[in-house]
């Protein structure tokens, strides 16, 4: 019986050791879970602060666009107008140049002088034009694309999604309004701002393509046609005959027709450009308001007091 009692005591001790071991293991796991939760909570806080800082930086891109297109709350196309104005001045100069070239050439011989309608005042104006050249300067290249940041958003997509799922405060009601729809998820509110950035960059890219296709391509084609005119009139410069005058007039009128066609196309595109810039400005103003709203919600999630003045 004593031996049986000893075995029971030993078994009881072993069971007690086993229970203590499980309790210790459970406590260690619980502590580790608590530490991990604390780390993830810290990561979530950093993620929220990162979004806030990134949206603040992206909000500053408004100034970069306004510097090129003018104030968002005012009509106009800003520095893009200088490109339109230069094209008009250049095309007008080319059209006048070729006709003046012909008239001044013809005026040097009585036989051809009587065949043109230019007065002495017209010829003087032509000489001034040829001497002065094109006074307007070709404006610098216009780069409109804002430099938006998406570093934190990429981190969120790479693995930060679960942080919002784990720690975002629930049942706080509306977080933002998206196209008239109340949104209760802060992650969706934040993500919607990046979706707007993509749309704006696409609109800006289309606007730049419009400028390049219309102005740079047409301006280049116009310059080539102008240089071609100067080459093709050379054979007629030696002998001032009625035949040479007719040939030179035909070349000049062909270039003037080319200029007129390009000018009409540019004026039509300028009207489209005004419309596109107007829509872009309206969209950027809405984005500006979205930035302010979402940053306020991020501060709320971080437990920070609301800002009385937007930075």
Which stretches are poorly predicted, pLDDT < 50 over at least 5 residues? 1-6, 27-37
Tell me the strand percentage band. under 5%
Report the major sheet.
Answer: 2 strands, antiparallel
Radius of gyration: 37 Å
Counted by DSSP, the helix tally is 8
Number of domains: 1
Query: What is the 3D shape?
Result: rod-shaped
- The succession of helices and strands, N to C, reads HHHHHHEEHH
- Average the pLDDT over all residues and give the rounded result: 83
What order do the strands of the largest sheet run in, or round the barrel if closed?
1-2
How far is the N terminus from the C terminus? 85 Å
Count of individual beta strands: 2
Helix share bin? over 70%
Key terms:
311 residues, two-stranded antiparallel ribbon, 8 helices, 2 strands, 2% strand, rod-shaped, disordered N terminus
């Amino acid at each position: 019986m004593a031996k049986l009692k000893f075995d029971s005591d030993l078994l009881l001790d072993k069971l007690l050791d086993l229970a203590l071991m499980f309790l210790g293991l459970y406590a260690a796991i619980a502590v580790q879970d608590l530490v991990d939760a604390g780390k993830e909570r810290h990561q979530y806080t950093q993620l929220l602060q990162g979004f806030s800082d990134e949206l603040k930086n992206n909000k500053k891109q408004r100034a970069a666009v306004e510097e090129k297109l003018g104030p968002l709350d005012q009509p106009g196309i800003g520095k893009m107008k200088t490109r339109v104005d230069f094209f008009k001045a250049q095309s007008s100069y080319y059209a006048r140049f070729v006709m003046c070239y012909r008239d001044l050439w013809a005026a040097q011989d009585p036989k051809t002088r009587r065949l043109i309608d230019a007065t002495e005042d017209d010829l003087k104006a032509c000489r001034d034009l040829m001497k002065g050249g094109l006074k307007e300067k070709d404006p610098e290249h216009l780069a409109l694309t804002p430099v938006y940041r998406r570093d934190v958003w990429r981190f969120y997509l790479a693995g930060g999604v679960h942080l919002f799922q784990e720690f975002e405060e629930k049942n706080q009601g509306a977080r933002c309004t998206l196209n008239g729809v109340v949104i209760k998820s802060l992650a969706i509110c934040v993500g919607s701002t990046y979706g707007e950035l993509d749309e704006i960059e696409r609109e800006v890219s289309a606007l730049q393509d419009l400028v390049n296709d219309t102005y740079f391509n047409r301006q280049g084609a116009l310059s080539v046609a102008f240089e071609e005119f100067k080459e093709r009139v050379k054979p007629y410069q030696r002998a001032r005959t009625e035949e040479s005058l007719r040939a030179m007039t035909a070349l000049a009128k062909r270039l003037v027709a080319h200029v007129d066609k390009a000018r009409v196309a540019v004026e039509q595109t300028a009207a489209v450009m005004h419309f596109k810039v107007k829509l872009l400005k309206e969209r950027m103003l809405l984005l500006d308001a979205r930035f302010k709203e979402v940053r306020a919600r991020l501060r709320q999630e971080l437990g920070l007091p609301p800002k009385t003045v937007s930075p």
